[in-house]
Amino acid sequence: MTEQQYPIGTPGQPWGVEEKQQWLKQQSVKRSYFDDVVTQINQLHDQFDVEQYGALEYTNNTFPLFLLKTRQWDSAKPNVLVTGGVHGYETSGVHGALAFAKQHAEQYSQWFNILIAPCISPWGYETINRWNPFAIDPNRSFKENSPAGECAAIMDYIASHQLDFVMHIDLHETTDTDNSEFRPALAARDGKVNTNWNIPDGFYTVGNSEKPTPDFQKAIIDSVRQVTHIAPADDEGKIIGAPVEQEGVIHYAGKELGLCMGLTDAPYVSTTEVYPDSANASPEECIEAQVAAVKGALEYMRQAVI
C-alpha cells in the first residue's frame, strides 16, 4: 500500500470548478468511439434492432448512444441486460459486449430477450478515462436525478419502456492505472488521502451485497476459468480492499453506491473484472473472458432459473 499525491488541487481540499477545468484540459482523444465501436454496431443491423437511446454533447462533439436489442422480443421470455464501457477506459468491457452480441446473442435469444448497451461512456472510451468531462464517475451515479448524462440516458430508456430484468451483467476491468492515475485523482478530487490497493492478477466478480447470489457468481467464475485465470485473494483475504466471499467473488452494495449493477431490480446481477495488464493474459483473452462470463451467467439462468 502506498500513498500518492496528485498534481492537481490542494491536499485536503475538494476540487472546485477551477481544478476540474484544469483536469479536463489535460485530457486528450486517444482513440475513436466512432471507428472502434459505432462501426461495429452498424454492422449488426441485420442481427439486432439497433436503437439510439440518447446522445451526449461533450467538448464540441456529439456522442450518440446505442443499444442492441434481440429480435422477436417476447413478453413470455425473461429480459436480460448486458452493459459495457460504464468506465470508458475499460476496453474489454466494450469489446466483450460487442463480441458476445456478434457471436452468441442470437443463440440465447431463443430463451431470453437480450438488451446490450456496449459503450455507456463514449467520451471516457475516447480519452481512456474513468470519469466523464465533469470529473463524475458514472459507476457511482446510477441514482435518481443522476448528475451523469451517461447514467441518465440508459436509466430513462429503461424507465420509459417499463423494462424489468431477471439478470444484469456489467463488464469491467481492474487495471494498473487504477493505482497510477484513477485512485489518486479520486482522492484529490474529494480532498482525501489516497491509499492504493493491491491490483488483483486475474478475473473476479463483484456481486450485489444487497442480493447475494453465490451459485450464480460461481457459474460465471467456472465459465471464465476455462479462458483465463481467477484472481486470488491478497494476504488479507481481500480483493481491492473487500473481503472475498467465495473464490473470485467480492460484494458491493449496488444501489446504495450508485453502481451500474444497481441500475435495475434484477435478482441476478454481477460486475465482471478482468486484469488486462497481467503478464498471463492478452487483450484478446480479456475479451474472451468477458464473453465467457456472459455465457456462464446465461447458462446458469437457463438451467437453474427458467
From TrEMBL:
<comment type="similarity">
    <text>Belongs to the peptidase M14 family.</text>
</comment>
<dbReference type="GO" id="GO:0016788">
    <property type="term" value="F:hydrolase activity, acting on ester bonds"/>
</dbReference>
<dbReference type="InterPro" id="IPR000834">
    <property type="entry name" value="Peptidase_M14"/>
</dbReference>
<dbReference type="GO" id="GO:0004181">
    <property type="term" value="F:metallocarboxypeptidase activity"/>
</dbReference>
<feature type="active site" description="Proton donor/acceptor">
    <location>
        <position position="273"/>
    </location>
</feature>
<keyword id="KW-0862">Zinc</keyword>
<protein>
    <submittedName>
        <fullName>Peptidase</fullName>
    </submittedName>
</protein>
<feature type="domain" description="Peptidase M14">
    <location>
        <begin position="29"/>
        <end position="305"/>
    </location>
</feature>
<dbReference type="GO" id="GO:0008270">
    <property type="term" value="F:zinc ion binding"/>
</dbReference>
<keyword id="KW-0479">Metal-binding</keyword>
<dbReference type="GO" id="GO:0006508">
    <property type="term" value="P:proteolysis"/>
</dbReference>
<dbReference type="Pfam" id="PF24827">
    <property type="entry name" value="AstE_AspA_cat"/>
</dbReference>
<keyword id="KW-0378">Hydrolase</keyword>
<dbReference type="InterPro" id="IPR055438">
    <property type="entry name" value="AstE_AspA_cat"/>
</dbReference>
